TrEMBL record:
Domain of life: Eukaryota
Gene Ontology molecular functions: hydrolase activity
InterPro entries: Acyl_Trfase/lysoPLipase, PNPLA_dom
Pfam family, any one: Patatin
Keyword vocabulary terms for this entry: Hydrolase, Lipid degradation, Lipid metabolism
Protein name per its UniProtKB record: Patatin
């Protein structure tokens, strides 16, 4: 009888110690934003709601998304948003809030995706590369000592991961702050990185550019062709980057939020023929759904550690996106419709983020005072 009491006491203490360890162990937080489309309605709605909920639950009106995430990944228009909310203002703080980033993308959308005048012999309409270049250069620069400084991958306050496809090597090329910190040959200006991952073949010409030291060149097309959903790339990066994430040994050490960008509108004609744009849409959607299925299987032991926000209904406004019921991939295929809305799922996720506390921002090599982004100055004038 006494032995049973001792055994019970031992197991009770071990259980308490284990639970205590689980509660205090901080998981590495990953935010991933899909490419696809030009409006980013789904991702934009999710990002604004995410940051609003963080501020509401922390009581800090100045809290931002990167305060609670350790790495951010994005493709296409998702990459532009990812780079905006991680770009360093010069003091180690983000240059843009989520709301400011989404508002700017919405306000300047017609310039980012401006159609070139169609010529007499030109069958296919393309977007203006020059117009997008000009906007991205304005977005990713800040003023230092009275001069404009174009930001690079190193000028981010959290690790950033953005893919494209390099035609020169016929392989994916992933831009990362980790590589940029190692060598200037892998450091690229942020506007060029975002331009590269957005170069959809049917709408833009391939984008040719070099690293800041001119030693690495790339001929890029849309990263969405291979990694429209960059979540798997981000998870793999964290698992194998022991320098920046030494405590991560498996997916059990991760907390992942993946933001979709809605289903494409590409349709196959009645006779079964596909246009180039339709093929691209099919590839993009297929990549995203495949990655979601893979991550769903990897986190099947605890689905609360992996949350995917996607809108597949007729929602065309941010409010409709947040009200739409969430979908979750099932093990071995298929999906199930959840009771919770997208907005409610984000709220639940933020509760876990806030409970585990802020991440620690790295010391900034720049100035101590915030620097106003030049895009804000141009909009004000």
């Amino acid at each position: 009888m006494e032995l049973s009491k001792v055994t019970l006491e031992i197991f009770s203490k071990l259980e308490h110690k284990w639970l205590s360890h689980c509660e205090t162990t901080k998981k590495t937080r990953v935010l991933s934003i899909d490419g696809g489309g030009t409006t980013a309605i789904v991702a934009g709605a999710a990002l604004i709601h995410l940051e609003d909920q963080i501020r509401l639950l922390t009581g800090d009106s100045h809290a931002q998304i990167v305060d609670f995430f350790d790495i951010v990944a994005g493709t296409g228009i998702g990459a532009i948003l990812a780079a905006m909310i991680t770009a360093d203002d010069g003091s180690g703080r983000p240059l843009y809030t989520a709301r400011d980033a989404v508002h700017l993308i919405t306000q300047r959308n017609s310039e980012l995706y401006k159609f070139k005048p169609a010529g007499v012999l030109r069958r296919r309409r393309r977007f203006s590369s020059r117009s997008m270049d000009n906007v991205l250069k304005q977005v990713f620069q800040r003023r230092e000592d009275g001069n404009a400084k174009l930001l690079t991958l190193k000028d981010t306050c959290k690790p950033l991961l953005i893919p494209c496809f390099d035609l020169k090597s016929s392989a994916p090329f992933v831009f990362s702050r980790a590589d940029a910190s190692e060598s200037p040959s892998f450091n690229f200006e942020l506007w060029k990185v975002c331009r590269a991952t957005s170069a959809t073949p049917s709408l833009f010409k391939p984008f040719h550019f070099t690293s800041v030291d001119g030693k690495t060149s790339c001929s890029a097309v849309d990263g969405g062709l291979v990694m429209n959903n960059p979540t798997a790339a981000a998870v793999t990066h964290v698992l194998h980057n022991k320098r920046d994430f030494p405590s991560v040994n498996s997916v059990e050490d991760l907390l992942v939020l993946s933001l979709g960008n809605g289903a494409s509108s590409g349709k196959i004609s009645d006779n079964g023929e596909c246009s180039t744009s339709t093929v691209v849409d099919i590839v993009v959607d297929g990549v995203s759904e495949t990655i979601d299925q893979m991550l769903g299987n990897a986190f099947s032991w605890n689905r609360t550690d992996y949350v995917r926000i996607q809108a597949l209904g007729s929602g065309r406004t941010r409010e409709e996106v947040l009200k739409e019921r969430g979908l979750e991939s099932l093990a071995f295929g298929g999906k199930r419709l959840l009771k919770e809305s997208n907005g409610e799922r984000i709220h639940s996720f933020v509760q876990r983020l806030v409970a585990s506390g802020k991440t620690s921002l790295p010391p900034s090599p720049c100035k101590d005072s915030p620097i106003t982004p030049l895009i804000s100055l141009s909009l004000a004038s």
